[in-house]
Design brief:
This protein is of the alpha/beta class. It folds into three domains: about 190 residues, 3-Layer(aba) Sandwich (Aldehyde Dehydrogenase, Chain A, domain 1), CATH 3.40.605; about 210 residues, Aldehyde Dehydrogenase, Chain A, domain 2; about 40 residues, no CATH class. It has 17 helices and 20 strands. The strands form five sheets. Strands 10-13-14-9-8-15-16 form a seven-stranded mixed β-sheet, sandwiched between helices. Strands 5-4-3-6-7-17 form a six-stranded mixed β-sheet, sandwiched between helices. Helix 4 packs parallel to helix 5. About 5% of the residues have low confidence. It binds nicotinamide-adenine-dinucleotide (NAD). InterPro entries: Ald_DH/histidinol_DH, Ald_DH_C, Ald_DH_CS_GLU, Ald_DH_N, Aldehyde_DH_dom, Aldehyde_DH_NAD(P). Keywords: Oxidoreductase.
Length: about 500
């Protein structure tokens, strides 16, 4: 990876605005070709991508293909094929709320590119989190500055080399570097910023965007809880939760962070986690080539320090190999207030917290949020607030599903498995509150980079129908234009029945 010279950055910004102004990125054919070039770039260089990500993260090639590279080839192709539909002008002439006389005014909505976009990506899923935004920006018809994470420098170097070979260099530029470079990037005016990363940096990005009134998509993280119904099959729950946890060594925004279990099921759940771990790693996880390492020593030491400071009981794992930056999948049973419940773990620790029953589990999760529910205020942990990106619930009890849906808030609510929402490309993905805002994947990413430009074509021969709007205002004009709504019959309603038919 070569850091982009600081004085190049304003020039990159200016050139991307200039290219946009030529409308070169508008034709659907241009966009479709660029999208398919992304697919070609990934396919023709798949081994180099897997090797670079292995060099950065020690991520097994299988995980790179399954959770990053193949998805992006697939989504680039789908985007190219579906683009004409997404970009089509929507005719609202037959909209049920349109008064009959406005039909002739030709109300239309055109998804229109916002301009020069900035995508800022993190290190933990370097490929998917840089390419997904790139696909959305190009599909939308924007020009793009892609700021890659400096943490995964092998991956960044590869993309820095490949993007100019595959994509239109007038329209897509890569910027590499750390805080000085990104600070310079953020001084420039962009027409949309799509940021994935942590909430602290998100505030810096949002403040910089505010100076230019730039709209934002913020894809953030947080502590994603798991609730385990004691009636659920413990063996299945343990295997599925552990699989979500070990993926990328827990360095995932949707990683199950902590599990709420009832005292009656703790032992069985923990035993089954051990059983699952033994079956995933028969020769131990520390030497397994099916297990990722911690990205760098800073993150290794962060997890090590958490394990040193917890007052909880280690029920599984805890071993580490500092030289290799590897930490075993680890399960710790804690009490409220433990350091492991403070902030997003982003590592291979699954924290267990016992709750009296399922109602108490909902109350615990909701107590972290600003919801007006009758919680035990004493359980409120002031260091944590707001809504998680994902809430996982293992239950086949429909009433419990409904209760959890009603009593909690989260970006995604997933029943009986972990992580699989990332594979369902028709679901909008994103957070709420502290876990971010905006939605992505396919058409939803396209929507981030476009705005709905509305058009009307008022016929020239309707003056006789609209003349009452012109001054001088008269009592007659008021009677015709304003009085009817003031006298309209408002439908009956009640808090219990809503709109009474
Ligand atoms: P990171 O350190 O790679 O940072 C992300 C980006 O922010 C990088 O491009 C980096 O250059 C930039 N950056 C860093 N410091 C900056 C500063 N001071 N000013 C401006 N920009 C700066 O990645 P990270 O933030 O450690 O990523 C992990 C976090 O991202 C976790 O919280 C995780 O939950 C979240 N995440 C969310 C999603 C999602 O889709 N919701 C996906 C992956 C990760």
């Amino acid at each position: 990876m070569i850091d982009t010279p600081l004085d190049e950055i304003p020039k990159i910004n200016a050139s991307l605005h200039a290219t946009f102004a030529t409308r070169k990125t508008f034709p659907l054919a241009w966009r479709q070709h660029q999208l398919l070039q992304i697919a070609r770039m990934l396919q023709e260089n798949h081994k180099a991508f897997a090797d670079a990500i292995y060099a950065d993260l020690g991520k097994p090639a299988f995980e790179v293909y399954m959770t990053e590279l193949n998805l992006m080839i697939d989504r680039a192709i789908i985007s190219a094929k579906r683009l004409p539909e997404w970009a089509a002008v929507k005719n609202l002439e037959n909209h049920p709320d349109l008064p009959a006389h406005q039909k002739a005014w030709k109300p239309r909505v055109a998804p229109t590119p916002k301009g020069a976009a900035l995508v800022i990506s993190p290190w933990n899923y370097p490929l998917i989190l840089s390419i997904q935004g790139t696909i959305g920006a190009i599909a939308a018809g924007c020009t793009l500055c892609l700021k890659l994470s400096e943490v995964t420098f092998n991956y960044a170097g590869l993309l820095q080399d490949l993007i100019p070979k595959y994509l239109d260099q007038d329209a897509v530029k890569v910027v590499c570097g750390s805080v000085p470079e990104i600070t310079k990037v953020l001084e420039q005016k962009w027409d949309h910023i799509f940021y994935t990363g942590n909430g602290t940096v998100a505030r810096i990005i949002a403040a910089a965007a505010a100076k230019h009134l730039t709209p934002l998509t913020l894809e953030l993280g947080g502590k994603s809880p798991v609730i385990i119904d004691p009636e659920f099959d413990m063996e299945l729950a343990a295997r599925r939760v552990l699989w979500g946890k070990i993926n990328n060594c827990g360095q995932v925004c949707v990683s199950p962070d902590y599990a709420l279990v009832t005292p009656s099921s703790t032992a069985a759940f923990a035993e089954n986690l051990k059983k699952a771990c033994a079956s995933f790693y028969p020769n131990g996880s520390l030497k397994s080539d099916s297990y990722t390492r911690m990205i760098n020593m800073q993150h290794f030491n962060r997890i090590k320090s958490l394990l040193e400071r917890t007052q909880g009981k280690v029920l599984m794992g805890g071993g580490m190999d500092e030289k290799e930056r590897r930490i075993e999948p680890t399960v710790v049973l804690v009490k409220p207030g433990d350091v492991l419940l403070e902030s997003e773990t982003f590592g291979p620790i699954l924290t267990l917290l016992e709750v009296e029953d399922m109602r108490a589990a909902c109350e615990y999760i909701s107590a972290q949020f600003v919801l007006c529910l009758p919680f035990r205020q004493s359980d409120l942990d002031p260091s944590r607030s707001d809504h998680p990106l994902v809430l996982y619930l293992f239950t086949q009890n429909e009433q419990l599903q409904q209760d959890v849906r009603k009593l909690t808030m989260s970006g995604n609510l997933i029943f009986n498995d972990t992580f699989m929402q990332m594979d369902v490309k028709v679901l909008p993905f994103g957070g709420v509150g502290e876990s971010g805002y905006g939605r992505q994947v396919l058409e939803n990413t396209f929507n981030c980079f476009t705005y709905e430009r509305t058009t009307l074509e008022i016929p020239v021969d309707v003056e006789d129908k609209i003349h009452l709007r012109y001054p001088p205002y008269t009592a007659h004009a008021f009677e015709v234009e304003c009085a009817p709504t003031l006298n309209v019959q408002i439908p009956e309603s009640s808090p219990e029945g809503g709109l009474v038919a």
